[in-house]
Amino acid sequence: MTRLITWYDVLGVLPDATPDDIREACQARKAALQPGILAGATPEVLSAAQRALQAVEEAWRVLADPAARESYDQDMGFLRFGEGLASPSRGPSGPDVSLGQGWSTADEEALKPYSDRPSRVMVPDVRGLFYQTCMDVAGRIGLHLAPIRLTPHPMPVEGLVVGQTPAPGKRVHRNSTLTVQLWHPPKLGGAHLTIASSRHMCSEPPTILIRVLTYVSA
Question: What digits encode the pLDDT tens for the residues 26-51?
């Protein structure tokens, strides 16, 4: 049995990403999930953000350690030949961490090694994923993604999935639509937030500076 979401997916990088790529991706993910960005968010958003942060931290723990990353790549079926990286012949494996009820069960069921592609698939739990990763996951099992933006005036950053329909674990026909609710940090009146993080955010306790910049319309 394989799993649907890889640690590379969580960070939004490819399996052949360099250590610097992984560090930068981790910094960007954690910066987007800082308390200052989430101030005033609903409980639904905060729950999804906490879920996302747990996944990012575990992805960093595995992928930042060369030995752990090599073992993970072997376990999930990525085989290295010379300097290249060959993808597995069957779907990817992914996070082995408890991130909430439904995450692992639905993801495992979605990619069970059936002899024939089933007409129905189990809906994975995509809450806590960023939008691009969610699109990739949905595409792997043949679901169409329909996003609903929750923030009227969002910052120009990637949205976080905070809700979904159908619910995780439900079996639906392949080619069905998975509707997801996307949250973005809102622009604050005539200003917006930018985030400066310490260079070693993903290897040491993060130091986050939030600056408010005046927005000047053209």
Answer: 999 999 999 999 999 999 999 999 99
Q: Which amino acid is at 129?
A: L
What's the rounded Cα separation, in Å, for the pair 169 and 7?
21
- Per the structure, the complete domain to which residue 125 belongs is given by 7-214
The pLDDT tens digits for 64-122 are 999 999 999 999 888 655 544 444 433 344 554 444 444 544 455 544 544 456 689 99
Domain count, the chain: 1
Instruction: Evaluate whether 129 touches 42 at the Cβ level (below 8 Å).
Output: no
Angle at 187 between CA 181 and CA 193, to 5 degrees: 110
**C-alpha span between 146 and 180 (Å, rounded):** 6
The HSE-up count of residue 76 (CA atoms within 13 Å, CB side) is 24
